Amino acid sequence: MLAIALTKGRLEKQSVALLEKSGYGIEALKDKGRALVFPDSKKEIHYFLVKAWDCVTYVEQGVADVGVVGKDTLLECGDEYYEVMDLGLGKCKFILASLPDNNVLNKSGHIKIGTKYPTVANNYFKQKGMDVEIIKIEGSVELAPILGLCDAIVDIMETGTTLKENGLVVFDEIYDISARVIVNKASFKLKRKEIISLLDDLKNAIKEDAAC
Ligand code: PRP
């Protein structure tokens, strides 16, 4: 029996669609109501839906053998897992953005950066040799420079609509992001056959998709 943690929200629909294309019995995930654990109707697998950070925790702790989670989350937290596959889903970017007249890359003095991703933001500015203050924000990050909480934000951009509708512009593209498969280290030894078979199925479905 394999336990697979899927990230709910943004990645959920695409991950479920890929599993379906790969031949898995995901009916319960498509018609899920308020349930959080879902048996596969064809294979010895159960899925559960969790938030991105929790997906990493479940995999690291071995409660889930496999997780599907965005690279944005992986860059921010934990490394006690194997990252084994890029699914090419949920593509977006880490960006540096602010109001048009506030390019912090050309600024000196005290600079404040609002972000949900303090590690990513810190590493980025360290590489640039800039000393900045990071302010952790939980959501609606675009609001922070508008209200003067910070000078700029490091955040993810998918369509760019949120930035545009709030009058913010991109000053730098930091990192390309997509959904990744992660595997618990012990599970990779103990359930190697099942996990390799899952990865092969996913790879084949992605290949077929690309060929269409
Ligand atoms: C993310 C991100 C941006 C938005 C970007 O937020 O933090 O706010 O999506 O998407 P776009 O480029 O397609 O407009 P999310 O929707 O995860 O919600 P949050 O603000 O509550 O974190």
Describe the protein's topology.
Layout: E1 2-7, H1 12-21, H2 27-30, E2 37-39, E3 45-50, H3 52-60, E4 66-70, H4 71-76, E5 82-86, E6 92-98, E7 112-115, H5 118-127, E8 133-136, H6 143-147, E9 152-157, H7 161-165, E10 169-177, E11 179-183, H8 185-190, H9 192-211
The structure holds 1-O-pyrophosphono-5-O-phosphono-alpha-D-ribofuranose (PRP).
Residues 139-142, 155-162 line the site of 1-O-pyrophosphono-5-O-phosphono-alpha-D-ribofuranose (PRP).
How would you briefly describe this protein structure?
This protein has 212 residues and is α/β, with parallel strands linked by helices. Helix content is 35%, strand content 28%. The longest helix has 20 residues, at 192-211.
